[in-house]
């Protein structure tokens, strides 16, 4: 199984096992850099996709796991995180913080822990799909498991 996964997905798979997560990484037929493309390939609602968005919060990475049906209110996130300035991170910042490319950032498997906020809306879905470290990999999980494995804080993002 692992030998067919992209290298970043193998790292994520190892992190998932170490954290006691239940889902297996799935390789999609095509890259899925957006929630809509992932949902279309998985046959699920866009809202069941956990978008992994990395923000630059006063120079530190902040991961927001948001429902694919939502847009993040950056000012709300800044207040929630207690940051003066929160902005979308550059691809270089994302890669440095996570070791993963934009469009494939997993909730886990980063070089160092990343502060994480988890959209409460994801709790409405029995199964949530999160990126597996590469734009063509995902894994099934739950809201509660995402909060647990990331040490994340449940929040409203919009």
Primary descriptors:
28% helix; YbaK protein; 8 strands; 25% strand; single chain; 5 helices; eight-stranded mixed sheet; 158 residues; alpha/beta
Could you explain how this protein is built, in words?
By secondary structure, this protein is of the alpha/beta class. The chain has one domain (7-155): YbaK protein (Alpha-Beta Complex), CATH 3.90.960. 28% of the residues lie in helices and 25% in strands. The chain has helices spanning 7-18, 35-42, 74-81, 91-98, 143-150, and strands spanning 26-27, 49-57, 60-67, 86-88, 115-119, 128-131, 137-141, 153-155. Strands 1, 2, 3, 4, 5, 6, 7 and 8 form an 8-stranded mixed β-sheet that branches. The radius of gyration is 14 Å and the shape is globular. Residues 30-148 form the YbaK/aminoacyl-tRNA synthetase-associated domain.
Q: Mind sketching the topology for me?
A:
Blueprint: H1 7-18, E1 26-27, H2 35-42, E2 49-57, E3 60-67, H3 74-81, E4 86-88, H4 91-98, E5 115-119, E6 128-131, E7 137-141, H5 143-150, E8 153-155
Parallel strand pairs: 2-6, 3-5, 5-8
Antiparallel strand pairs: 1-7, 2-3, 2-4, 6-7
Protein name: YbaK/EbsC family protein
Organism: Nonomuraea turkmeniaca
InterPro entries: YbaK/aa-tRNA-synt-asso_dom_sf, YbaK/aa-tRNA-synth-assoc-dom
How would you concisely characterize the structure shown here?
The protein is of the alpha/beta class. It has helices spanning 7-18, 35-42, 74-81, 91-98, 143-150, and strands at residues 26-27, 49-57, 60-67, 86-88, 115-119, 128-131, 137-141, 153-155.
């Amino acid at each position: 199984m692992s030998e067919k996964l992209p290298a970043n997905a193998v790292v994520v798979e190892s992190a998932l096992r170490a954290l006691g997560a239940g889902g297996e990484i799935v390789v999609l037929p095509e890259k899925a850099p957006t929630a809509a493309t992932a949902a279309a390939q998985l046959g699920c609602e866009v809202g069941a996709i956990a978008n992994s968005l990395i923000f630059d919060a006063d120079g530190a990475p902040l991961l927001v796991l948001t429902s694919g049906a939502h847009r993040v209110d950056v000012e709300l996130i800044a207040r929630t995180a207690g940051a003066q300035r929160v902005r979308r991170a550059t691809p270089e910042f994302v890669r440095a913080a996570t070791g993963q490319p934009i469009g494939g950032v997993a909730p886990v498997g980063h070089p160092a822990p990343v502060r994480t906020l988890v959209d409460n809306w994801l709790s409405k879905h029995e199964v949530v799909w999160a990126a597996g470290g590469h734009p063509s990999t995902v894994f099934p999980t739950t809201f509660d498991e995402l909060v647990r494995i990331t040490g994340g804080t449940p929040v409203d993002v919009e």
